[in-house]
Amino acid sequence: MMNLDSNWDIIVIGGGITGAGIFRESVRMGLKALLLEQQDFAWGTSSRSSKLVHGGLRYLKEGRFFLTRDAVRERERLLTEARGLVTPMEFLVPIYKDRGPGRWVLEAGLSIYDLIAKQRQHHYLDADAFVKQVPNIDQKGLVGGFQFLDAQVDDARLVLRLIFESMVNGGTALNYTRAAAVGRDKDGQVNGVTVEDVHSHQTLSLSTKAVINATGCWAERLHPSPQKNLHLRPLRGSHLVFPAHVLPVDQAISTIHPADGRAVFIVPWEGAVIAGTTDLDHQDSLSFEPRITEGEVTYLLDGLHALFPALDVSARDCIATIAGVRPVLSEGKCDPSEESREHVVWVNNGLVTITGGKLTTFRKLAFDVLKAAKPFLPADTTADEESPVFLPFENRPVSPPPISDSHWETLYGRYGNAAETIIKKTLPSDLAVISGTRTLWAEIPHAATHEKIHHLSDLLLRRVRVGLLTAKGGREHMDRIRHLCAPVLDWDSNRWKKEIRDYSEKWRFAHGMPGRHAESRGAVKSFFFNMGKRLRKHVA
Ligand SMILES: Cc1cc2nc3c(=O)[nH]c(=O)nc-3n(C[C@H](O)[C@H](O)[C@H](O)COP(=O)(O)OP(=O)(O)OC[C@H]3O[C@@H](n4cnc5c(N)ncnc54)[C@H](O)[C@@H]3O)c2cc1C
C-alpha cells in the first residue's frame, strides 16, 4: 500500500457489485480510479444474493414498474454482454386453486415483462403439462402454471470480472483496505480519503475531489442519511443449498410460501440447488458475517415440504447455508417484504453516496452515480452508456481444444480474456470438473495466482464457490486444493494450518447449519452410529 499513488480522479469505497460497477465505468471513462474494499471483493451482500438477474415479477405487483423495466432491460443486455456469466434460466410458477396469484394476474405481469424485453418469453401450461416439468410437485389444487425466461449469475464472479477487467484497463483495486475517513477542506469540500490496511493497520492519506460511498448496508457510517425519516434498514435474506439429487429440479421454481404468502425461489445453480429466501430485520452487528437462524431454516423447509411433499427434504440434506443483508432504505413503517428495493443517491460536496438497488441493475446505478459526481470529476469526462460493459466474447481457441464449448463459455464468462491462459497453462487432468460443481480444478491455481486472494476463504467462497457447493465447505477436496496452490501461494505449513482452521470456523459460523438443526444432523448420525455398534455387538 505504501507505493500507492496519492492523487486520484475518483475513489470508490466498497467492493460489492455497486462499487465494482462504478469502478468499471470510471475506468472506461479514462479516469484515474481507485477502489477500496475493507474485506475481500464481494465479501458483503454481493456474494450472498439469490443469484438472479431478473426483472422481479413481484415489483410489478407492488406497482414498481420502472424498477422492473430497468431490470428487464439490464437482463437483456447482460445476457449478451456477459455471455457465459449471466445465463438464461427457465422459471416455472405453479398456480393453485387456494393460494397465490391466479392465471390472469400472472398473465398480465408476464406480458409486461415480455413487452419490455420485446419478445414473447412465457407460456401457460395446464396441470398435466406442468407436472411433466416438475414431477415431484404438490398436485393437490394445482390448476396449471406458467413457464417464463429470466437469468442467473455467479454474483461474486460478476463483481470480480468487473474489478479485474478494470484493473487490466488501468484501474487500481485493493481488498482488505478500509476507508477510515473522508477528508474535507475548510469549506467542507471533499479532498481525500484516509485508508487503512486492515492486516498491518498502516494508514495513508490520499487526495481526490470525488469520493463514492458504495458501501451498501454500511453507507450511513460514512454519510448519514440527509432525509430525517429515511434510513437504512438492513434486512436479512437466507438460503439453503442442496445437492441436485435431493431437490431434482431442472428449472427454477417461484412459488408462494403457505405461511405468509411471500414469494420463494428454488433455483438450480452451479450443479446444486438453492432454496430461498427469507426477509427479516437483521439485528446482529454488521461487523460479523450474517448467518441463518433456526427459525429461517424451519420456514424454508416448511416451504419446500408444501411444494414437494413426497421428497421429504430435511436439514441434514443441506450442503450449506447462505445469508445476506439487503441494503434497503426505509421509513420504518412497513413489512420487510413490502419495502422498496429502489436505490438512492445523496450528493454532499464531493461525496456521492449510493445505496439500495439490486445486483441486476448495477450499470444503471453506476451511471446515476457518475452523473451526480460529474461536477467533481475532471472536465470533459462522460460515461459511455452505450458500449458493452465487458470485453466482447471470444470463441474457444481452435488449438488446443481440451474443453467443451459449454465449459469454455462458462470459463470466458467468469474470467474474460484470462480464460485462454487457464486452459493453455493447465495439465489435462486439471481440466476436469470438481464433482458437484461446474468449476474446473484449473480455476483454483489460476485464482490463487492472479486474483488477489489473502485467505483461503477468499478462494473457496468467492473466487470459486466450492465452499458453498460441496459438503462441509469442500473439506474432502482440501488436500488437492492445497497441492494445486502450494507452488503459487507463499504459505508455509503453519500458515496453511491457520488458514484451514480459520476457514473452517468461518464456514461453520456463516454457512453451516445453526443450533437445533445442526444437532438434529448430529443426532441422526449418532443414532445410526450407535445402532451400527449395537448390531455389530449383536452379530458378534
Ligand atoms: C438474500 C438476498 C438475495 C438477493 N437476491 C438478489 C437477486 O437475486 N438479484 C438481484 O439483482 N439482487 C439481489 N439482491 C440484492 C443485491 O444482492 C444487493 O442489492 C447488492 O448485492 C448490494 O450490493 P452493494 O455493492 O451495494 O453492497 P455490498 O455487496 O454489501 O458491498 C458493500 C461493500 O462495502 C464494503 N465496505 C463497507 N464499509 C467500507 C469501508 N469503510 N471501506 C471499504 N469498504 C467498505 C463492505 O465490506 C462490502 O463488501 C439480494 C439481496 C439479498 C440480501
Short description:
By secondary structure, the protein is α+β, with helices and mostly antiparallel strands. It contains 17 helices and 19 strands.
Straight-line distance between termini: 67 Å
Low-pLDDT segments, ≥5 res? none
Tally of domains? 3
What is the global morphology? globular
Largest sheet: 10 strands, mixed
Strand content: 15-25%
Estimate the mean pLDDT confidence. Answer: 92
Fourth-tier CATH superfamily name of the largest domain: D-Amino Acid Oxidase, subunit A, domain 2
Helix content: 25-40%
Number of helices: 17
Number of strands: 19
CATH class of the largest domain equals Alpha Beta
Oligomeric state of this protein: single chain
Q: Based on the structure given, which CATH architecture of the largest domain is correct?
A: 2-Layer Sandwich
Radius of gyration: 24 Å
How would you characterize this protein structure?
The chain is α+β, with helices and mostly antiparallel strands and 540 residues long. It has 3 domains: 10-46 and 156-229 and 340-376, FAD/NAD(P)-binding domain, CATH 3.50.50.60; 87-152 and 231-334, D-Amino Acid Oxidase, subunit A, domain 2 (D-Amino Acid Oxidase, Chain A, domain 2, 2-Layer Sandwich), CATH 3.30.9.10; 426-511, no CATH class. The chain has helices at 17-28, 57-61, 65-81, 103-117, 127-133, 155-168, 219-222, 294-307, 362-373, 405-415, 418-424, 443-450, 456-463, 466-469, 478-485, 493-511, 515-539; strands at 10-13, 33-36, 52-53, 86-96, 122-126, 142-153, 172-174, 177-184, 190-197, 203-207, 211-213, 231-243, 252-256, 263-269, 272-276, 280-281, 320-330, 343-348, 351-356. The strands form 3 sheets. Strands 3, 4, 5, 6, 12, 13, 14, 15, 16 and 17 form a 10-stranded mixed β-sheet that branches. A 6-stranded mixed β-sheet has the order 7-2-1-11-19-18, with helices on one face. Strand 8 and strand 9 (190-197) form a beta hairpin. Helix 1 runs parallel beside helix 6 (155-168) and helix 1 (17-28) crosses helix 9. The mean pLDDT is 92. The structure holds flavin-adenine dinucleotide. Residues 13-19, 36-39, 43-46, 49-52, 178-179, 214-218, 237, 277, 324-327, 357-360 line the site of flavin-adenine dinucleotide.
